[in-house]
Design a protein that fits this description.
Elements (H helix, E strand, L loop, with lengths): L1 H18 L1 H25 L6 H19 L5 H7 L5 H5 L8 H20 L1 H5 L19 H24 L3 E3 L3 E5 H22 L4 H29 L14 H5 L2 H15 L1
Antiparallel strand pairs: 1-2
Helix pairs in contact: 1-2, 2-3, 2-6, 3-6, 6-12, 8-9, 8-10, 9-10, 10-12
Length: 275
Protein backbone atom coordinates (compact mmCIF):
# COMPACT_ATOMS: atom_id res chain seq x y z
CA UNK A 1 0.00 0.00 0.00
CA UNK A 2 2.83 2.41 0.86
CA UNK A 3 4.46 1.85 -2.54
CA UNK A 4 1.21 2.33 -4.44
CA UNK A 5 0.36 5.50 -2.51
CA UNK A 6 3.90 6.81 -2.99
CA UNK A 7 3.68 6.23 -6.73
CA UNK A 8 0.43 8.19 -7.03
CA UNK A 9 1.75 10.99 -4.82
CA UNK A 10 4.68 11.44 -7.22
CA UNK A 11 2.43 11.25 -10.29
CA UNK A 12 -0.08 13.76 -8.92
CA UNK A 13 2.55 16.24 -7.74
CA UNK A 14 4.67 16.11 -10.90
CA UNK A 15 1.57 16.13 -13.11
CA UNK A 16 0.06 19.12 -11.31
CA UNK A 17 3.32 21.05 -11.59
CA UNK A 18 3.90 20.26 -15.25
CA UNK A 19 0.42 20.28 -16.81
CA UNK A 20 -0.78 23.86 -16.28
CA UNK A 21 -0.52 26.80 -13.84
CA UNK A 22 -4.09 26.17 -12.61
CA UNK A 23 -3.29 22.59 -11.58
CA UNK A 24 -0.13 23.88 -9.87
CA UNK A 25 -2.11 26.50 -7.94
CA UNK A 26 -4.73 23.97 -6.85
CA UNK A 27 -2.01 21.56 -5.71
CA UNK A 28 -0.48 24.26 -3.50
CA UNK A 29 -3.88 25.16 -2.01
CA UNK A 30 -4.59 21.51 -1.16
CA UNK A 31 -1.17 21.21 0.50
CA UNK A 32 -1.79 24.34 2.56
CA UNK A 33 -5.25 23.37 3.78
CA UNK A 34 -4.38 19.72 4.38
CA UNK A 35 -1.21 20.50 6.35
CA UNK A 36 -2.83 23.30 8.32
CA UNK A 37 -5.83 21.13 9.22
CA UNK A 38 -3.52 18.42 10.54
CA UNK A 39 -1.49 20.93 12.53
CA UNK A 40 -4.60 22.15 14.35
CA UNK A 41 -5.66 18.55 14.94
CA UNK A 42 -2.31 17.74 16.55
CA UNK A 43 -2.47 20.87 18.68
CA UNK A 44 -5.97 19.94 19.85
CA UNK A 45 -4.60 16.61 21.13
CA UNK A 46 -2.43 18.69 23.46
CA UNK A 47 -5.56 20.27 24.90
CA UNK A 48 -5.19 23.56 23.01
CA UNK A 49 -8.28 24.86 21.21
CA UNK A 50 -7.09 26.95 18.29
CA UNK A 51 -9.31 28.86 15.87
CA UNK A 52 -9.39 26.00 13.39
CA UNK A 53 -11.72 27.44 10.73
CA UNK A 54 -10.32 30.97 11.00
CA UNK A 55 -6.81 29.58 10.63
CA UNK A 56 -7.74 27.58 7.53
CA UNK A 57 -9.36 30.64 5.94
CA UNK A 58 -6.32 32.77 6.74
CA UNK A 59 -3.83 30.18 5.47
CA UNK A 60 -5.72 29.69 2.22
CA UNK A 61 -6.15 33.45 1.79
CA UNK A 62 -2.44 34.17 2.23
CA UNK A 63 -1.58 31.50 -0.33
CA UNK A 64 -4.08 32.77 -2.94
CA UNK A 65 -3.04 36.40 -2.45
CA UNK A 66 0.59 35.32 -2.90
CA UNK A 67 -0.41 33.64 -6.17
CA UNK A 68 -2.15 36.84 -7.30
CA UNK A 69 0.89 38.97 -6.47
CA UNK A 70 3.34 36.54 -8.09
CA UNK A 71 1.20 36.66 -11.26
CA UNK A 72 1.25 40.49 -11.05
CA UNK A 73 -2.51 40.64 -10.55
CA UNK A 74 -2.16 42.76 -7.41
CA UNK A 75 0.51 45.33 -6.56
CA UNK A 76 3.05 44.99 -3.77
CA UNK A 77 1.17 47.57 -1.66
CA UNK A 78 -2.13 45.72 -2.00
CA UNK A 79 -0.36 42.44 -1.26
CA UNK A 80 1.10 43.78 1.99
CA UNK A 81 -2.30 45.20 2.92
CA UNK A 82 -3.96 41.80 2.36
CA UNK A 83 -1.37 40.14 4.59
CA UNK A 84 -2.93 42.02 7.52
CA UNK A 85 -6.20 40.13 6.95
CA UNK A 86 -5.44 37.34 9.49
CA UNK A 87 -5.37 39.94 12.28
CA UNK A 88 -9.12 39.37 12.60
CA UNK A 89 -8.14 36.24 14.56
CA UNK A 90 -7.27 38.54 17.48
CA UNK A 91 -10.73 40.09 17.36
CA UNK A 92 -12.52 36.72 17.13
CA UNK A 93 -10.84 35.59 20.32
CA UNK A 94 -12.72 38.32 22.22
CA UNK A 95 -15.93 36.33 21.70
CA UNK A 96 -14.75 32.75 22.30
CA UNK A 97 -14.62 32.88 26.13
CA UNK A 98 -11.71 30.42 26.32
CA UNK A 99 -9.68 29.97 29.48
CA UNK A 100 -6.38 30.55 27.64
CA UNK A 101 -7.22 32.92 24.76
CA UNK A 102 -3.65 33.90 23.92
CA UNK A 103 -2.58 30.28 23.81
CA UNK A 104 -5.29 29.78 21.19
CA UNK A 105 -4.16 32.89 19.28
CA UNK A 106 -0.52 31.79 19.40
CA UNK A 107 -1.23 28.31 18.03
CA UNK A 108 -3.60 29.63 15.36
CA UNK A 109 -0.93 32.01 14.03
CA UNK A 110 1.84 29.44 14.46
CA UNK A 111 -0.07 27.00 12.27
CA UNK A 112 -0.41 29.60 9.51
CA UNK A 113 3.27 30.55 9.69
CA UNK A 114 4.46 26.94 9.89
CA UNK A 115 2.41 25.61 6.97
CA UNK A 116 0.86 28.34 4.83
CA UNK A 117 3.81 30.72 4.54
CA UNK A 118 6.29 28.13 3.10
CA UNK A 119 3.77 26.96 0.49
CA UNK A 120 2.91 30.58 -0.29
CA UNK A 121 6.49 31.05 -1.49
CA UNK A 122 5.93 28.52 -4.29
CA UNK A 123 4.22 30.98 -6.69
CA UNK A 124 7.14 33.43 -6.49
CA UNK A 125 9.45 30.71 -7.84
CA UNK A 126 7.03 29.63 -10.58
CA UNK A 127 5.62 32.79 -12.13
CA UNK A 128 7.74 35.34 -13.97
CA UNK A 129 10.59 32.89 -14.55
CA UNK A 130 11.77 31.85 -18.01
CA UNK A 131 12.87 28.40 -19.10
CA UNK A 132 10.79 25.26 -18.72
CA UNK A 133 7.09 25.55 -19.64
CA UNK A 134 3.94 23.62 -18.79
CA UNK A 135 2.56 20.92 -21.09
CA UNK A 136 -0.58 22.95 -21.76
CA UNK A 137 0.06 26.52 -22.86
CA UNK A 138 -0.52 29.08 -20.14
CA UNK A 139 -1.16 31.86 -22.64
CA UNK A 140 0.29 35.21 -21.64
CA UNK A 141 1.08 34.01 -18.12
CA UNK A 142 4.83 33.52 -17.67
CA UNK A 143 4.97 30.18 -15.88
CA UNK A 144 8.07 28.03 -15.46
CA UNK A 145 7.92 25.05 -13.07
CA UNK A 146 11.67 24.33 -13.23
CA UNK A 147 12.53 25.45 -9.67
CA UNK A 148 9.51 23.72 -8.12
CA UNK A 149 10.12 20.54 -10.10
CA UNK A 150 13.81 20.49 -9.21
CA UNK A 151 13.02 21.09 -5.56
CA UNK A 152 10.64 18.14 -5.25
CA UNK A 153 12.89 15.77 -7.18
CA UNK A 154 15.90 16.62 -5.02
CA UNK A 155 13.84 16.42 -1.83
CA UNK A 156 12.66 12.92 -2.79
CA UNK A 157 16.15 11.84 -3.85
CA UNK A 158 17.52 13.00 -0.51
CA UNK A 159 14.82 11.10 1.40
CA UNK A 160 15.47 7.95 -0.63
CA UNK A 161 19.23 8.15 -0.19
CA UNK A 162 18.92 8.80 3.55
CA UNK A 163 16.52 5.88 3.99
CA UNK A 164 18.60 3.36 2.02
CA UNK A 165 21.88 4.40 3.63
CA UNK A 166 20.30 4.49 7.08
CA UNK A 167 18.89 0.96 6.96
CA UNK A 168 22.12 -0.38 5.41
CA UNK A 169 24.93 1.12 7.49
CA UNK A 170 23.22 3.57 9.84
CA UNK A 171 24.51 3.32 13.42
CA UNK A 172 25.16 6.80 14.81
CA UNK A 173 21.90 8.39 15.97
CA UNK A 174 21.23 11.86 14.57
CA UNK A 175 18.62 13.04 17.08
CA UNK A 176 17.55 9.99 19.09
CA UNK A 177 15.34 11.91 21.53
CA UNK A 178 13.03 13.00 18.71
CA UNK A 179 13.56 10.51 15.87
CA UNK A 180 15.27 7.25 16.99
CA UNK A 181 15.57 5.85 13.45
CA UNK A 182 17.47 8.75 11.90
CA UNK A 183 21.25 8.40 11.71
CA UNK A 184 24.18 10.54 10.66
CA UNK A 185 25.12 7.92 8.09
CA UNK A 186 21.64 8.21 6.57
CA UNK A 187 21.84 12.00 6.48
CA UNK A 188 25.26 11.95 4.81
CA UNK A 189 24.14 9.29 2.33
CA UNK A 190 21.11 11.34 1.34
CA UNK A 191 23.21 14.49 1.03
CA UNK A 192 25.84 12.85 -1.20
CA UNK A 193 23.22 11.30 -3.49
CA UNK A 194 21.40 14.63 -3.67
CA UNK A 195 24.51 16.55 -4.70
CA UNK A 196 25.36 13.95 -7.37
CA UNK A 197 21.80 14.14 -8.70
CA UNK A 198 21.89 17.94 -8.73
CA UNK A 199 25.12 17.85 -10.77
CA UNK A 200 23.53 15.76 -13.51
CA UNK A 201 20.06 17.36 -13.45
CA UNK A 202 21.11 21.02 -13.19
CA UNK A 203 21.36 21.46 -16.94
CA UNK A 204 17.78 20.27 -17.37
CA UNK A 205 16.38 22.43 -14.56
CA UNK A 206 18.13 25.60 -15.66
CA UNK A 207 17.10 29.01 -14.18
CA UNK A 208 20.23 29.11 -12.01
CA UNK A 209 23.71 27.70 -12.65
CA UNK A 210 25.12 24.28 -11.80
CA UNK A 211 27.00 25.52 -8.74
CA UNK A 212 23.80 27.12 -7.48
CA UNK A 213 21.95 23.82 -7.86
CA UNK A 214 24.67 22.05 -5.89
CA UNK A 215 24.24 24.57 -3.08
CA UNK A 216 20.47 24.18 -3.30
CA UNK A 217 20.88 20.39 -3.00
CA UNK A 218 22.85 20.96 0.21
CA UNK A 219 20.17 23.31 1.57
CA UNK A 220 17.38 20.91 0.61
CA UNK A 221 19.10 18.03 2.42
CA UNK A 222 19.61 20.08 5.57
CA UNK A 223 16.19 21.73 5.46
CA UNK A 224 14.38 18.50 4.63
CA UNK A 225 16.00 16.73 7.59
CA UNK A 226 15.22 19.59 9.97
CA UNK A 227 11.64 19.74 8.71
CA UNK A 228 11.22 16.04 9.42
CA UNK A 229 12.63 16.45 12.94
CA UNK A 230 10.37 19.42 13.73
CA UNK A 231 7.29 17.48 12.63
CA UNK A 232 8.43 14.46 14.66
CA UNK A 233 8.71 16.73 17.69
CA UNK A 234 5.15 17.97 17.07
CA UNK A 235 3.82 14.40 16.80
CA UNK A 236 5.67 13.24 19.91
CA UNK A 237 4.29 16.18 21.87
CA UNK A 238 0.79 15.25 20.66
CA UNK A 239 1.30 11.54 21.36
CA UNK A 240 0.63 10.22 17.85
CA UNK A 241 2.57 8.23 15.26
CA UNK A 242 1.16 9.92 12.15
CA UNK A 243 -0.16 13.43 11.57
CA UNK A 244 -3.17 12.02 9.70
CA UNK A 245 -4.49 9.10 7.67
CA UNK A 246 -5.29 10.74 4.33
CA UNK A 247 -2.36 9.04 2.56
CA UNK A 248 -2.41 5.25 3.24
CA UNK A 249 1.03 4.02 4.24
CA UNK A 250 2.39 7.57 4.42
CA UNK A 251 0.23 9.10 7.17
CA UNK A 252 -0.99 12.61 6.52
CA UNK A 253 -0.02 15.76 4.66
CA UNK A 254 2.48 16.85 7.31
CA UNK A 255 4.12 13.42 7.25
CA UNK A 256 4.59 13.69 3.50
CA UNK A 257 5.49 17.38 3.19
CA UNK A 258 7.25 18.13 6.49
CA UNK A 259 10.59 18.60 4.73
CA UNK A 260 9.08 21.21 2.41
CA UNK A 261 8.24 23.52 5.31
CA UNK A 262 11.87 24.33 6.10
CA UNK A 263 13.71 23.30 2.92
CA UNK A 264 11.73 25.46 0.50
CA UNK A 265 12.10 28.71 2.49
CA UNK A 266 15.87 28.06 2.49
CA UNK A 267 15.78 27.58 -1.29
CA UNK A 268 13.66 30.71 -1.72
CA UNK A 269 16.04 32.76 0.44
CA UNK A 270 19.12 31.57 -1.46
CA UNK A 271 17.68 32.23 -4.92
CA UNK A 272 16.28 35.61 -3.84
CA UNK A 273 19.68 36.71 -2.53
CA UNK A 274 22.13 34.99 -4.89
CA UNK A 275 20.19 33.43 -7.79
Amino acid sequence: MRTITGFWIVVIILGSILIHPVSFILLGLIMVLGSLHEYYRLVSLQGIKSQHLAGLISGGFIYLVSVAHAMQMVSAKIYLLFLLFPMYILIFELFTKKNNPFQSIAQTFTGVIYTSVPFSLFPFMAFGEGGMHSFISSGEVEYSPAIILGFFLLLWINDTGAYLTGITIGKTKLFERISPKKTWEGFIGGLVLNIVAAWFLSGWFGVVGRIDWLILALLISIGGTLGDLVESLLKRTSGVKDSGHFLPGHGGFLDRFDGVLIAFPLLFLYISLFG
